[in-house]
Amino acid sequence: MMRWQVLALGLWWAVPATASAQFSLFQDAPHSLAPLVAVVAPSVVGITVTEASGVPGGTPAPVRGGKKTPPLTEAAGSGFIISPAGFIVTNDHVIAGAAQIVVTLDDGEKFTAQLVGADDLTDIAVIRIHAPHRLDPAHWANSNKVQVGDWVLAAGNPFALGNSFTLGIVSAEGRDIGEGPFNHFLQLDAPINPGNSGGPAFNMAGGVIGINSAIVSPSGGSVGIGFAIPSNSAAPIVAELIAHGSVARGWLGVSVADPKNGAKGAVITGLEPGGPADQAGLSQSDLIVTVNGEAISGADGLTRAIASMAPGRKVILGVRENAHIFHLPVIVGRRPVQIGD
């Protein structure tokens, strides 16, 4: 142990130029994040969701008034205010199935919220409260300008304890964690725990660069690997949810899977009767390899390509049959809510 300590000290003194360079990189960092927290804290909210659920283990639900009434369970999440009018962003998985949504502001005030709209494919939802006073909103920042190594302040309501803030860096970009076809996440090492879902990730200027949405953890707690939906992906979805209550997404009326042989494309495993693909003459086991001439890598690639199109648009699908590809025009339908592609 003593020998290791001596070697470490020796290395320290052996590279003074490196130590000096490292110091210069951090000399502009703030001594405290308290001023930043004071600015952004009023926009961060805790969310409590009451939902009906079945009783584990097949136990019958209690009977009241001659009818079975499922028990109510509570779950906690986070969100952030984006408008003085009371619009709040959170994750779809936070409010999905909610019978009641209660929002707690940073000062402890509580309000019942209404669902404005949700998009399960991006895991984004908007709720709204009506407060008798002006609310302090957060503002979006440009996530395209985020670099690996940038400081990030994660905020939320971990374990329903109340608003908390943790500091870290952006440790990677463009992470695909299999949580849907649209989200290429920012990876953060700022501690994020259960209850932080839907909370904001701020840059050092107080702008929201992401929505904290997932963690990787063998224990259920933070191990320094968290994921946030980039703001540039989230902001247009939020705007559409506020305007229309849902996101108009293209839909083929098929279920698809990756080819088992490792080939590129998406294999049709089922068709919705009367859906766009069915009407166009596609069949189960057909292999779709291109959309408007662009190659697709797999099932998620097809879902992403079609869902990003406006309903009613004509699309040309390249379908491989043996060694040949034939091109089939299909009129894209509108994706029903909670229906698979």
Q: In words, what does this structure look like?
A:
The structure is a single chain. The chain has helices at residues 2-14, 16-26, 34-40, 92-95, 231-244, 276-280, 299-307, and strands spanning 44-52, 63-64, 67-68, 72-81, 87-90, 98-104, 110-119, 124-128, 139-140, 151-156, 164-175, 185-188, 200-202, 207-215, 226-230, 250-251, 254-257, 266-271, 287-291, 294-295, 314-321, 324-331, 333-334. Among the domains are: 139-232, Thrombin, subunit H; 250-334, Pdz3 Domain, CATH 2.30.42.10. The model is unreliable at 1-24 and 54-71 (pLDDT under 50). The chain has a six-stranded antiparallel barrel with strand order 1-4-5-8-7-6. Strands 10-11-12-15-14-13 form a six-stranded antiparallel barrel. It is elongated and about 65 Å long. By secondary structure, it is of the alpha+beta class. It starts with a helix and ends in a 7-residue tail after the last strand.
Q: Would you kindly provide a brief summary of this structure?
A:
This protein is α+β, with helices and mostly antiparallel strands and 341 residues long. It has helices at residues 2-14, 16-26, 34-40, 92-95, 231-244, 276-280, 299-307, and strands at residues 44-52, 63-64, 67-68, 72-81, 87-90, 98-104, 110-119, 124-128, 139-140, 151-156, 164-175, 185-188, 200-202, 207-215, 226-230, 250-251, 254-257, 266-271, 287-291, 294-295, 314-321, 324-331, 333-334.
List keywords for this structure.
single chain; 341 residues; alpha+beta; Thrombin, subunit H; Pdz3 Domain; six-stranded antiparallel barrel; six-stranded antiparallel β-barrel; 7 helices; 23 strands; disordered N terminus
